[in-house]
Write a structure and sequence with these properties.
Two copies of one chain form a homodimer. Chain A is mostly helical and 223 residues long. In chain A, 72% of the residues lie in helices and 0% in strands. Chain A binds a DNA duplex (18 and 18 nucleotides) through residues 16, 37-39, 47-55, 58-59.
Amino acid sequence: MSLYEGGEMARAKRTTKEKLLDAAEKLFARKGYHGTSLRQITREAGVDLALVNYHFGGKEKLFEAVLDRRGAMLNEERLRRLEEVCRAAAPRPAATEAVVGAFFDPILDFLEHAGPGWHSYFSLLAWVNNSPQWGKRLMGKTFNATVKRFIEALMDSLPKAAPEDIYWGYNFLTGALTLSLAETGRLDVLSGGLCRSVDVAALRARLGPFVAAGLRGLAQRGG
Amino acid sequence: MSLYEGGEMARAKRTTKEKLLDAAEKLFARKGYHGTSLRQITREAGVDLALVNYHFGGKEKLFEAVLDRRGAMLNEERLRRLEEVCRAAAPRPAATEAVVGAFFDPILDFLEHAGPGWHSYFSLLAWVNNSPQWGKRLMGKTFNATVKRFIEALMDSLPKAAPEDIYWGYNFLTGALTLSLAETGRLDVLSGGLCRSVDVAALRARLGPFVAAGLRGLAQRGG
DNA sequence: GTCTATAGCTTGATAGAC
DNA sequence: GTCTATCAAGCTATAGAC
């Protein structure tokens, strides 16, 4: 199973657990946790209603399992690339652009080369990240350890910046990223069709430069 | 009624309609549309369940009324400030920093000087903006006309930038803004308490510089 | 592991008295 | 405008047959 096929095997070979995860991922991404019922999920998965409780132990556990599945893969790939750019730059710290790239590129690569499951997953992640109900606990559980490594690397790359500036900068960075991943179609409407929410190449060309320049601007704030 | 008290009068003087809007705003912001029931809303408002249908015609209409109420005030204030900075700079175009300030400052002023209703409203807005279900239609209905004016002003301020860069830049800008408004508390956890999600002064000092630098970086992309 | 059947509860909406 | 009472539908979860 290649990196980019993670969790998206041919229909015939998927286990019941995977069918449920795939269906839940798709529907939770569209309508949120409370807006999706187990009946809709099991219908989409072609599986009996009672099997959610057998395999996962309830709706909320299923929700967390959906977030965990690809979150672990994302963390692995991000850390691999962070280590790569740090090693390439040693003994100097990696440049801001390189650190930011190690954070964004795994997502963009999954979106460009993998199946629709990753699109749903990232859209769901955007929703969770902006949710007062889920954001703090669920994002933290999956991503805090990795994010702290990236924040350290950003601080190393911008030694003149105050730590507060880097924390706020990370907040802006992840906000810009997650809205882009939500694929709401709003960008399409505003631009009259000139830009498309799902155009990963266009996003890749602009997100890194915007964020790196923004972080540098923060680091030189006032001086 | 001063600008900053909009919709938040003394408890005794509020009409039933306003009580319902205030309660719905607070609860929708915390748990989303599907996560909030009309029974919770009417209990919080101290009002009978049946009155939602009498005054608004259903749950979804109530939801849209919540978004409309303060959205109109926000648009007015944003356009007033945009005109101000454009007039001050004429005949040259207003600077990127000034346009971005006219877009952010009304929100930051409402958060700093007005009651908790505005916090709930902006938190709800963050959620709606990142929702595939609601984002395109509801954000567009309330904000498209105003946003188009700001995008034009941004294009004028950065004549070397391609229109696509400005549209994507606006997307990043609003993502950074809305995650900050969601007040999920995640920033507090990541920074070990050094930064606080609800610290409007800290946000004000950093959001404008980050975004303006990001937009300039986009405009000079590759060259 | 899977499926049937159902318990126990909450939901949004409304008819009709006042 | 307000309130009581209620309806039909949908919800999560589970006990128990296979």
